[in-house]
Specification:
Keywords: Amino-acid transport, Cell membrane, Membrane, Transmembrane, Transmembrane helix, Transport. This protein has about 220 residues and is mostly helical. The chain contains 10 helices and no strands. The N and C termini lie far apart (about 50 Å).
């Protein structure tokens, strides 16, 4: 038991590497705060485009969704960071990670928003137009709020998944929480920093997991 505590729950080592872990924690939050709104906004724009444009627009949106849902975000990040410089586009670690997260996350948000917009009865469109609202105003004040409410559990769940995917940034040596824990583990030859990082991830994301469960239960009971 003593050996386990020394190697996995060593408070002395934890105090030593705490500043490094805190630095990584803030970078993880920064990645989440920047990438999630951008991915959601792009996803909503794609969903609206798919529903409102002609055949070419719908085809392009479907192609985007299929491509970026098929490519693992880690592979996408490695391509952006290491391959794009050969095409003359060089991004530093943070913008590269944000771009990969946004491109991938938007493809999932687009499908969720599309389902939400399509769930709004056609009568709502007609009722909004009959009150004198234009197409843009109808979407902004009537259709999008209702559609978003209809798929709220899926939106929160996808937000949680995107936040967890910020750990891929460690692949390009961006010092988010996982990368910080790996560096600390290498400095101390002890697994305590990795255990600490796992605990931080749990404390950070567990409330959202409970929220998703609650939303699904509410949605299920409401449908019943």
């Amino acid at each position: 038991m003593n050996e386990i505590i020394l190697n996995f729950f060593n408070l002395e080592i934890l105090r030593e590497v705490a500043p490094l872990l805190v630095q990584g924690f803030w970078m993880t939050l920064k990645l989440s705060v920047v990438s999630i709104p951008l991915a959601a906004a792009l996803g909503l724009a794609l969903a609206i485009t798919q529903g409102a444009s002609g055949r070419i627009g719908r085809t392009l949106v479907i192609a985007y969704v299929d491509v970026f849902r098929s490519i693992p975000p880690l592979v996408l990040l490695i391509f952006i960071f290491y391959a794009l410089p050969f095409l003359g586009l060089r991004l530093t670690e943070f913008p590269a990670a944000i771009l990969a997260l946004v491109l991938n996350g938007a493809s999932y948000f687009a499908e969720i928003f599309r389902a939400g917009l399509e769930s709004v009865p056609k009568g709502q469109h007609e009722a909004a137009r009959s009150t004198g609202l234009g197409w843009r105003q109808s979407m902004q004040y009537v259709i999008i709020p209702q559609g978003t409410r209809n798929v709220m559990p899926d939106l929160v769940s996808n937000t949680l998944e995107l936040a967890k995917q910020t750990s891929i940034a460690s692949a390009v040596a961006l010092q988010e929480l996982l990368r910080s824990a790996q560096l600390a583990q290498g400095m101390t030859y002890n697994a305590t920093p990795l255990i600490a990082a796992a605990v931080v991830y749990f404390l950070l994301f567990w409330p959202f997991v409970r929220l998703v469960s609650r939303l699904h239960q509410t949605s299920g009971s409401g449908a019943g």
